[in-house]
Amino acid sequence: MALTLEQLNAADLATAASLLDGLYEHSPWIAEAALAQRPFRSLAQIKYAMAQVLDKAPVQAKLDLIRAHPELAGKAMETNTLTAESTNEQNKAGLTRCTPEELEHIRKLNAEYGKRFGFPFILAVRGPRGAGLAKAEIIETFERRLHNHPDFELGEALRNIHRIAEIRLNDKFGYTPELGNDVWDWQEKLAQHSDPGYAEKGQLTVTYLTDAHRACAQRISHWMRDCGFDEVEIDAVGNVVGRYKAATDDARTLLTGSHYDTVRNGGKYDGRLGIFVPMACVRELHRQGKRLPFHIEVVGFSEEEGQRYKATFLGSGALIGDFRQEWLEQKDADGITLREAMQHAGLCIDDIPKLQRDPARYLGFIEVHIEQGPVLNELDIPLGIVTSINGSARYICEMIGMASHAGTTPMDRRRDAACGVAELALYIEKRAARDGTSVATMGQLNVPSGSVNVVPGRCQFSLDLRAPTNEQRDAMVADILAEIEAIAQRRGLRYSTELAMKAAAAPSAPEWQQRWEAAVDALGVPLYRMPSGAGHDAMKLHEIMPQAMLFVRGLNAGISHNPLESSTADDMQLSVDAFSHVLNQLAQEQQ
């Protein structure tokens, strides 16, 4: 019989500890210490409590825990001395059915890994959905993580141990994150569509109005109809728009959604998570025959990434009246104009102005998004409350000195443009770190016509500067521009800086941020407030209506814009639950 929270909370300490036995391999002390935080309101609260116990433990205790785990497909499996939990997990992943060649390769990896790190390789082999990873994926992950820094790999091993414990806890309680699984499955299925040149390599790339992009739009629209949306359409810029009507026609509307295009060779969850979470909520409302006192409008924005054309946020921009006619003449790499691409897709360009929303008819905009960073992953917190979308400024710059012979020009007489830029690169790193929440990146560096035996006379570089408020961003920009001037003066260099883009910060509307906070707290998950360093569709809607975002933890150190981008069905379930809570809270407020 499945365990219940009531049973666990009511039991004496010894009984409760026995009920949680086996979550952490041969390490009952973790669950025992976490039980001091009873009563628990949710499984998520138990999981976080155990993660905190381990986080505060001495390093040696962490190493002992890792070393208590068996090697994958190792001696313990061969001699049938695995715990029942480990046997089940390795069996589900197919590790008990390896070919002799696979076993030999895994043994070599185990030996190499143990020699490098001093503990066994740990991987939650049941994977992000809990159904089991493929053997090829396990081996690929094993090979990749061999190259991690030892400190990082220690943390990654512990995070995988927490994921193993999470799945085992679910099993004890007979819990399945059903809606999280559905959201996860939708994203996997949508990832079957990819642009030519990438699809053949198994890579995900969906750029604006390609065949793959249009196939995604059709598939999302079909799923919206299946979920019970009253109206579904693909609008004049390719947005997929689903509307679930309120109990009365004259009600206002809650707007939500995110984008379904991707970067080249990107991940499956960036943007798309924010479409499918509200879709799952609408489907549940439809199944219950429930209508809210406001309309729900879910938009799969057609373009946010700016991959095929220079213009970005074409989808959400159209909703605020920001679609410029000159963009229609932009050309992609094949010389196809945006106008031609839209006409080929059957979109009516003349209807674009009609897409502009009247903010008076909307309550606001909320967006769920994968974090795209390492913070939540490192803190073992599944959800984050976004306080602001960072303001940003981008510059295209050049430092100019004098090209000269590398062998005959003394060090004190050089006008080395590259060294000047290198000095600046170290400065921006320190300057951004001084704020605590600012970030600065020199993502492009180029020495034109550079040669191994020539002192660089020119060095081209970019600057990407971001901060949670416009004032903080502008102060950092001013300091960095002043430092460029100072470096040039000291080194006898000239320079040029061109502002390529400037975007205002988009602080979350307090009342909407508070609704997210109430929803997360109701789940028993700790509140963690954080700025968003990346731009999102919410920053466009911010220009005409209040907005707030919820972040969902990513796996693999939170990496994004990368095939390794991932999240668990459990965390997706929590985001669905949080979204549903916001809907219910808003419904109560509207009555």
Structure in words:
This protein is of the alpha+beta class and 591 residues long. It has 3 domains: 5-173, Oxo-4-hydroxy-4-carboxy-5-ureidoimidazoline decarboxylase (UraD-like, Orthogonal Bundle); 179-387 and 512-590, Aminopeptidase (3-Layer(aba) Sandwich); 394-504, Alpha-Beta Plaits (2-Layer Sandwich), CATH 3.30.70. The protein is 43% helix and 15% strand. It contains 21 helices and 16 strands. It has helices at residues 5-10, 13-19, 29-34, 43-55, 59-67, 75-78, 84-92, 100-117, 135-145, 150-173, 178-190, 211-227, 273-288, 314-319, 338-344, 375-379, 417-435, 470-491, 510-522, 537-541, 569-590; strands spanning 231-234, 240-244, 253-259, 295-301, 362-370, 383-389, 391-400, 404-405, 439-441, 445-446, 454-455, 458-467, 494-503, 506-507, 529-532, 547-552. Strands 1, 2, 3, 4, 5, 6, 14, 15 and 16 form a 9-stranded mixed sheet that branches. Strands 7, 9, 10, 12 and 13 form a 5-stranded antiparallel sheet that branches. A hairpin with a 5-residue loop joins strand 1 and strand 2. It is globular, with a radius of gyration of 26 Å.
